[in-house]
Amino acid sequence: PQEEELALMNMGPESYYHAWAFTDVAEIFYDRTIAFTKASDKESWSKRYLELLRKISLNHNSKRMLLKNPPNTARIPVLLELFPNAKFIHIHRDPFEVYASTEKLLTRVLPYFQFRECPEGFMESHIITTYSRLMKAYLDHRSKIPEGQLVEISMAALGNYPMEELERIYASLGLKLGKES
Question: What is the pTM assigned to this prediction?
Fold first, then answer.
């Protein structure tokens, strides 16, 4: 199991993670695959995303999907267009922890994905800029999520009280435990 963004990356150009291969133009990938600055980019991404989710659904007998994909943090308007009844769980954590975790991830994966050397200072500016843009988009758009379709929890609470937090998620989103959910 992995983030579906990795599957999107393998399916075509509609994934933000292509920025890992072409770090010198990472902002262009953000604009095309997360911010959707052109309508055609949104249409292309939506088509590819639906294709991927149909495959996942077929493979898992159409069970409810739980998807974890950091770029989706900023895709709320598009996700609501595609799935008006979608439920959202926003797990937030200390930005310094996010920075350290992302730096560790990129330090490990970039050497395997890169086609070009990172520009000087890329790592620091990329992490800060991308995180800032993702969080700003989330904060700007979370009010569009209908009541009862969003729950926000902290990573610390989830780590310290996992069962209580999971119960809160289920209750907040009106989900039932078991096969019927």
Answer: 0.90
Q: Residue 18 is which amino acid?
A: H
Give one DSSP letter per residue of 7-52, joined into a string. Answer: HHHHHSS--GGGGGT-GGGHHHHHIIIII--SHHHHHHHHHHHHHH
* CA quadruple 13, 11, 86, 136: dihedral sign: negative
Q: What is the pLDDT of residues 124-175, one digit of tens each?
A: 999 999 999 999 999 999 999 999 999 999 999 999 999 999 999 999 999 9
Q: For the residues 1-13, what does the mean pLDDT come to?
A: 88
Query: Do residues 28 and 17 lie in contact, with contact meaning Cβ atoms separated by under 8 Å?
Result: no
- How far apart CA 165 and CA 157 sit, in angstroms, is 7
Measured distance CA(164)–CA(141) in Å, rounded: 27
Farthest-apart Cα atoms in the chain, separation: 52
pLDDT of residue 59: 85
Residue recorded with tokens 């159409």: 62
Nearest alpha-carbon partner for 91 in 65, 124, 69: 69
Kindly provide the residue ranges of all beta strands, DSSP E only, lying in 25-178, ordered along the sequence: 88-92, 150-154
% of residues, the chain, pLDDT over 90: 76
